């Protein structure tokens, strides 16, 4: 079981380190803070570059926590919060299949680690911390949902301007 948890932590954690460093530094084909910030502005997160910094740092740090098995429930909560934002602000309109299924899987996989713990091959275990179980999983879920919802409520989505009635008739 410990080897399985180690593999799961590595897979999810390394992928999130990659996603975070795409946003922060433009690594792995990413757009860096400026490009990601522009995209974030377009979906209502303002100021875009600052929100890209927050997202990139959260993904990178959450990924590092999972890879190392250090403060695993906190790392899981960070991933859950980011995935809630990705699903609601970008992927929801695409539906489950071909839309947000991978984001959902990332969030659930991270949450599983909060419930089960990181396993024997982790810094948490090396330090002697037993931060796993139902209470830790629920705490990670609650923190992830709270931070995800907080970030979502900070969005300022602009609606397209209404077309005046005269223009509507002309277009028909």
Class inferred from helices and paired strands: mainly alpha
SSE run: HHHHHHHH
> Taking all residues together, what is the mean pLDDT?
91
Please outline the major beta sheet.
none
Question: What general form does the structure show?
Answer: globular
Beta-strand level of the residues, as a percent range?
under 5%
List keywords for this structure.
172 residues, mainly alpha, 8 helices, 0% strand
Describe the structure.
The protein has 172 residues and is mainly α. The chain has one domain (2-157). Helices cover 75% and strands 0% of the residues. The protein is built from eight helices and no strands. It has helices at 2-25, 32-42, 48-68, 72-91, 96-116, 123-127, 134-153, 165-171. Helix 1 crosses helix 2. The longest helix has 24 residues, at 2-25. It is globular and about 50 Å long. Residues 166-172 have low confidence and may be disordered.
Summarize the topology.
Layout: H1 2-25, H2 32-42, H3 48-68, H4 72-91, H5 96-116, H6 123-127, H7 134-153, H8 165-171
């Amino acid at each position: 079981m410990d080897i399985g948890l180690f593999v799961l932590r590595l897979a999810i954690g390394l992928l999130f380190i990659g996603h975070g460093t795409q946003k922060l530094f433009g690594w792995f084909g990413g757009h860096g803070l400026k490009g990601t910030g522009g995209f974030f502005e377009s979906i209502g997160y303002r100021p875009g570059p600052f929100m890209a910094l927050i997202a990139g740092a959260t993904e990178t740090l959450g990924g590092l926590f999972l890879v190392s098995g250090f403060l695993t429930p906190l790392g899981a909560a960070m991933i859950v919060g980011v995935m809630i934002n990705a699903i609601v602000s970008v992927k929801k309109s695409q539906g489950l299949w071909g839309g947000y299924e991978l984001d959902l899987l990332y969030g659930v996989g991270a949450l599983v680690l909060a419930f089960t713990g990181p396993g024997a091959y982790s810094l948490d275990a090396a330090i002697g911390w037993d931060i796993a179980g139902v209470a830790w999983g629920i705490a990670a879920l609650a923190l992830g949902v709270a931070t995800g919802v907080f970030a979502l409520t900070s969005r300022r989505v602009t609606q397209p301007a209404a077309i005046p009635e005269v223009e509507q008739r002309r277009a028909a």
